[in-house]
């Protein structure tokens, strides 16, 4: 009888070779013992037996069976065939329907029997063993997460052991560049990925950068020295379905030794991502974030708030104009601002404005410092940082009490989530106030230096022969145009004062 064997082996090459050699010997001995001819061994590498879909060799075996390439399949250990009872019985029945016998062997080459009743019992036992293994693994992961388990692979770090990472100096420079490209240059995740690939900077696994990888980096608090574990769990061990875990069950660990990005820049990144997301969700194409052209999403209509969009007109010569997207798309019934901005004239206007600032830069810097100090004192004169910290501490204490009440069956999980959700909202609000006070206090101490840096950025911009959108964004926060054709340039150095 022509027989084939099916097995699953390790992904490690040395172990795989040894395993395949041992199993080949095992199946050859069985074939010789019963005068069969061993045609082939189908072996999947390190693939879970819970599902058939991702087992290429298993599916190849089922396909070859239909071509009458063999008469019997032999398997050592039912769990090697499938740990999902339904898949197991379906595969066995399909093979039997086309006249292929399936035999399961013990370690001493004894045939276990192939009646459906016996096979169902063995398969159910294998599935239950897999379920129990999944529970043990899940429990172990949760324990390690609580202790501060670190990711196996994460860009910017080298893993030392289960609970220890070390900053990779070269990769940390790329992490800083990614955050700077997003917050300072105004690049999106796709543009950042393209730039890294063009510069031939490999990802952690050596492949190309993808936008989703950039987004994961930009939102991962580990880069500011805060590690969050227990965020996702597997809810179905057979399908591998995963779902997010409620924030109240997350484990947060302060790891200052892992900091690459400052708290201020990380917070700025999250705020910018939220703002851009709102823009992307806007149905108005002209209002979506872009850095394609020099003034993309920089020019705003004072009346409807939509961005100005770029239009090219050709009549003898080519002219580049910018006009309100709201007016252009929905006519004057939506927005009455039909004032058109000539790109060349606007650029000259900006140059003149910036040159005027440079000509009186000492006076400009003094005004920035004065205005900042006045606004800072006005905004935070009534806020006491210690008082806010005590409020946050009290709310966290209350949150722990609710968790204790749940542990002692005083309240159920639904009430716990409701109470903790309310407290979390209050805590987040207070922590935001504390962060604002810290940020603007530290910024107030260095406002003179920041003003001087802004002057230097303006001088650098004026020295360029050509400008890009990212060049403009370093200096300009937005350009507002109204129906009367009045243009207001909001510099980032001045926009930073608007925090009241």
Q: Which features characterize this protein?
A:
four-stranded parallel beta sheet, Rossmann fold, 3 domains, 17 helices, 500 residues, alpha/beta, three-stranded mixed beta sheet, extended, Hect, E3 ligase catalytic domain fold
List the helices and strands and how they pair.
Blueprint: E1 2-9, H1 13-33, E2 37-45, H2 56-65, E3 72-76, H3 78-81, H4 85-97, E4 101-105, H5 116-147, E5 157-161, E6 164-167, H6 169-183, H7 189-198, H8 211-219, E7 226-229, E8 232-236, E9 241-244, E10 251-254, H9 263-281, E11 299-301, E12 308-315, E13 317-324, H10 325-330, E14 341-342, H11 343-359, H12 361-380, H13 385-407, H14 413-445, H15 447-462, H16 469-475, E15 476-481, E16 487-491, H17 492-495
Parallel strand pairs: 1-2, 1-3, 3-4, 11-15
Antiparallel strand pairs: 5-6, 7-10, 8-9, 12-13, 13-14, 15-16
Tell me about this structure:
The protein is extended. 22% of the residues are buried. The longest helix has 33 residues, at 413-445. It has 3 domains: 2-137, Rossmann fold; 148-276, Alpha-Beta Complex (Hect, E3 ligase catalytic domain fold), CATH 3.90.1750; 282-495, no CATH class. It contains 17 helices and 16 strands. It is α/β, with parallel strands linked by helices and 500 residues long. Helix 12 crosses helix 15.
């Amino acid at each position: 009888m022509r027989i084939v064997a099916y097995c699953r082996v390790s992904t490690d090459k040395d172990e795989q070779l040894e395993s395949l050699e041992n199993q080949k010997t095992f199946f050859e001995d069985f074939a010789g013992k019963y005068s069969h001819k061993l045609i082939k061994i189908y072996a999947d590498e390190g693939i879970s037996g819970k599902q058939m879909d991702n087992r290429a060799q298993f599916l190849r075996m089922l396909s070859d069976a239909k071509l009458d390439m063999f008469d019997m399949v032999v398997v050592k250990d039912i769990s090697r065939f499938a740990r999902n009872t339904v898949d197991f019985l379906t595969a066995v029945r399909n093979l039997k329907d086309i006249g292929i016998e399936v035999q399961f062997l013990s370690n001493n080459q004894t045939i276990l029997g192939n009646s459906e009743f016996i096979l169902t019992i063995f398969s159910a036992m294998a599935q239950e063993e897999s379920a129990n293994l999944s529970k043990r693994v899940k429990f172990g992961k949760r324990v390690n997460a609580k202790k501060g388990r670190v990711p196996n692979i994460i860009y910017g770090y080298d893993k030392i052991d289960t609970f220890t990472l070390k900053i990779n100096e070269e990769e940390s420079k790329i992490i800083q560049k990614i955050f700077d490209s997003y917050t300072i240059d105004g690049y999106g995740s796709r543009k950042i990925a393209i730039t890294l690939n063009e510069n031939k900077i490999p990802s952690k696994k050596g492949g190309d950068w993808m936008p989703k990888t950039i987004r994961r980096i930009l939102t991962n608090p580990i880069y500011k020295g805060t590690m969050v574990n227990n965020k996702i769990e597997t809810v179905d061990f057979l399908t591998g379905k995963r779902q997010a875990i409620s924030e109240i069950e997350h484990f947060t660990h302060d790891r200052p030794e892992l900091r690459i990005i400052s708290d201020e820049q990380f917070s700025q990144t999250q705020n910018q991502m939220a703002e851009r997301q709102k823009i992307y969700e806007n149905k108005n194409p002209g209002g979506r974030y872009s850095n394609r052209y020099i003034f993309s999403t920089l020019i705003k209509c004072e009346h409807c708030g939509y961005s100005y969009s770029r239009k090219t007109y050709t009549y003898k010569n080519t002219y580049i104009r910018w006009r309100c997207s709201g007016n252009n798309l929905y006519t004057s019934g939506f927005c009455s601002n039909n004032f058109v901005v000539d790109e060349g004239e606007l650029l000259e206007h900006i140059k003149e404005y910036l040159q005027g600032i440079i000509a009186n830069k000492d006076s400009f810097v003094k005004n920035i410092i004065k205005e900042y100090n006045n606004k800072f004192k006005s905004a935070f004169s009534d806020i006491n940082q210690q008082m806010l910290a005590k409020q946050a501490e009290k709310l966290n204490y209350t949150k722990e009490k609710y968790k204790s009440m749940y542990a002692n069956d005083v309240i159920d999980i639904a009430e716990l989530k409701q109470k903790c959700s309310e407290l979390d909202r209050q805590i987040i609000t207070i922590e935001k106030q504390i962060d604002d006070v810290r940020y603007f206090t530290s910024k107030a101490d260095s406002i003179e230096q920041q003003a001087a840096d802004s002057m230097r950025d303006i001088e650098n911009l004026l020295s360029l022969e050509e400008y890009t959108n990212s060049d403009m964004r370093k200096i300009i926060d937005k350009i507002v145009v109204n129906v009367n054709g009045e243009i207001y340039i909001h510099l980032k150095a001045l926009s930073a004062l608007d925090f009241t």
